[in-house]
Amino acid sequence: MFGLSISESFIIDMYRVEVSNIGNGIVYRRYKNDAIEKEVFTKNISLKPIPIYPLFYPRFLTRYILCEFNTPIYIPPMDSINFYMLLPIDIAIYGYKDNYFTVLDIIPIHRLYKYTLYGPPSRYGDVSGIIARYFKVATSLEKPEEPMQGFCISYIEVRNKLDRFTAISKILLDSSPLSIFYEAGSWRCCTQHITVTINTSTTAVVEYDRKPIESGFKSIDEPEETKTPIITFRNDMLWGY
Amino acid sequence: MDIIEIFKSIVLQSGDILPRLIIFIAIFVTGITISIVIRKSILRILSMRMPRAIASNLSKAIYYALIFLVAITALGAIGIDLTGFIIAGGFAGIVIGVALQPVLSNLFSGFYLMIEKTINVGEAVEIGGNAGEVTEISPMFTRIRTFDGFVVNISNTQIISGVIKNFSKAVARRIEFKVGIAYRENAEKAYEVIKRILDEHPYVLINPSPDIFVSNLGGSSVDITVRVWTPPQVAYETTKDLLWRIKKALSEAGIEIPFTQVDVWFRSPLNIEQIYRVKEKMEKE
Predict the structure, then answer these.
(1) Is the confidence at residue A173, as pLDDT, over 90?
(2) pLDDT, tens digit, for every residue of A34-85?
(3) Max CA distance (Å), chain B
(4) Which chain A residues have a beta carbon less than 8 Å from that of B174?
(5) Residues B172, B207 contacting (CB under 8 angstroms)
């Protein structure tokens, strides 16, 4: 369960995680089909599974996630629509010692990890496309009761500022202003309220609230890769939505 | 003048020179120390506001100007008249200007590179056939550590006037390779095998989508060209990995990757028996 110290072992998806105290140290092992995929030796720390952005497997290349909706969404002119989205997440094994922490392992629980290019493939001055983690995501107008393991609930509001119908099929999320919140002792997690404002036929602005959509959920400790200085809690979608 | 008188003369003169020399050294050493401190402070302050290469070169330029001032001050303090230097400096300036034309050209090219940011330290580039990572951009030279480990210094003029291929400016890289399959094999099956490998590979981008097509009906094989886009950081390892996986998958699917074959046709039927007889005859002889 998220946020609880791993006492002995647990099974998640196709992986078995085992933590054993040997001598004066700790051995962390992650198995896949009885073969060790990851092994770490450490000492005097508390190991906890925490939800993490799906950006670290096979290695961290970008802080952006491009979610393509499995259902296209049409917004009437000068109107807005709200819906829920299941944001894919991975599970990180954090090691805690007093106020310090580190990520010891990333458990990739999705079958397929892909990247995509959002925007043009070269840089023109300061404007350029970006490489983003790609996921096809499920959306619903009703709140999912019990989300599947490996997904966070995200609440999205799309505002159409144009005087015509607009279709939105994808959303670009920046892991720096985006936050993941989890309920300690369960596998439930969520993000904050995300607002997408469609300004022109090709551009939109994605803004992030500070609070989680579920009260009482705790924010994850941001890893170094996604902990960049945040000036504004927003990112732009310049190359279509 | 005997040797004793010469010695006395040197001692008398040195009585005058020694204090001057001490003053010169004192001013020079103090000046250089202060210049070093100023250079380091400027470098630290500028590094926070501008790229490291520009900050480094600006601080170097200020340092050399300070050294020049220190030298002038030290010489003036020991009573050396610098008026002659100034007059001579005018003529020398013209001579030096002509002599240093290539040097100055490099210098201004260096400043142009820094301001225009055509290349930056840490970027992967190819200049004049040298592909590698930029490790330093000085006012005169740009230093590249090639991918095979050599350090190459390229003059800035050469960079400005030549062709620069900057791999780091690309947000995504396209890689391309050809796979040949035998004529008797099913090209559609090969296409499916290759497509599956590309779809499963994490570094092959969804968009722009991979391109797989028969590009040539060659002498010995049907050539299938594969074009994929990848994040630039992993372009090299993706190329290696894809080629390996595709080769393995095609072999597992029983698809033959042929080697070059040449069919030789004889105008008249070849009599094998006759060849053996000639060979036996030659052995007997």
Answers:
(1) yes
(2) 899 999 999 989 999 999 999 999 999 999 999 999 998 999 999 999 999 9
(3) 114
(4) 121
(5) no
Phi, psi values for residue B176, rounded to 5°: -140, 140
State how far the Cα of B55 lies from the Cα of A181, in Å rounded to an integer. 42
Q: What gap in Å lies between CA A87 and CA A182, rounded to an integer?
A: 13
DSSP A128-177: EEEEEEEEEE-EESSPPSSPPTTEEEEEEEEEE-SSS-EEEEEEEEETTT
Preferred mutation among B207, B233, B236, B238 to probe A, highest tally of A CBs within 10 A: B207
Tokens 């520009």 correspond to what residue? Answer: B54
The confidence band for A157, taking pLDDT boundaries of 50, 70 and 90, is: very high
As a residue count, chain B comes to 285
ipTM over 0.85? The verdict is yes
Q: Under 8 Å CB-to-CB from A172, ≥6 apart: which residues?
A: A64, A65, A66, A118, A132, A206, A235, A237
- Decide if pLDDT at A127 tops 70: no
Q: What does pLDDT average to over chain A?
A: 91
For residues B181 and B222, the answer to whether their CB atoms sit within 8 Å is yes
**H/E element holding B145?**
strand B141-146
Among all residues of chain B, which has the CA nearest to that of A135?
B206
B221/B184 Cα distance (integer angstroms) = 9
Domain boundaries, chain A: 49-237
Alpha-carbon span A182 to B136, nearest angstrom: 46
pLDDT, tens digit, for every residue of B177-234? 999 999 989 999 999 999 999 999 999 999 999 999 999 998 889 999 999 999 988 9
- Asked if A115 lies within 8 A of B171 by C-beta distance, the reply is no
According to the model, what pLDDT value does residue B2 have? 64
Q: Is the pLDDT of residue B95 over 70?
A: yes
C-beta separation of A101 from A166 below 8 A: no
Domain residue ranges of chain B, discontinuous segments joined by +: 3-80, 118-169, 170-285
B206 contact residues in A (CB cutoff 8 A): 114-116, 134
Residue range B170-285 forms a domain whose CATH class is alpha beta
Contact A62 B202 (CB under 8 A): no
C-alpha distances in Å from residue A151, one per residue of A148, A206, B43, B211, B253: 6, 20, 48, 32, 36
Q: Supply A140's token pair.
A: 């619903």
Residue with tokens 């259902």: A71
Tens-place pLDDT, residues B24-73:
889 889 999 999 999 888 888 887 777 666 777 778 888 888 888 888 88
Q: How far is B195 from chain A (nearest CA, A)?
A: 14
Tokens 């990180």 found at:
A92
Q: What is the DSSP string of B100-116?
A: THHHHHHHHHHHHHHHH
CB contact under 8 A, A122 and B207: no
Domain B118-169 CATH assignment equals 2.30.30.60: yes
